[in-house]
User: Fold this.
Amino acid sequence: MGASDLRGLQKALAAQRFEPAYYLFGDDEHRKDALTRQIVAAAVDPVTRDFNLDMIRGAEVDPQGLDAILQTLPMMAARRVVVVRDTGALRKDGRAALERYLESPS
Assistant:
């Protein structure tokens, strides 16, 4: 992510304008973690975070579980956030579930 992209993302977060999905990639795990924390902090109210935030790893979730998490509606909030780390570790059917969701995210 270039500096102008990062500034654009930070402006959008400050204005509470969110894209349906973000894909953070690259070798700098610290930077990806920091951006993830910024997005979560801006998008999810701390009061309802226990209900509206799921952080999962690709290798640890089965396709049905991933699909259920992605389809879960927000509780007492306008939105919920699902962070999927290590998407490369998703099994083929898990990637298919994620791709189906991304075609029409809620």
Notes: The helical segments are 3-14, 29-43, 49-52, 63-71, 92-103. The mean pLDDT is 92. The CA atoms of residues 11 and 17 lie 9 Å apart. The two ends are 25 Å apart (CA to CA).
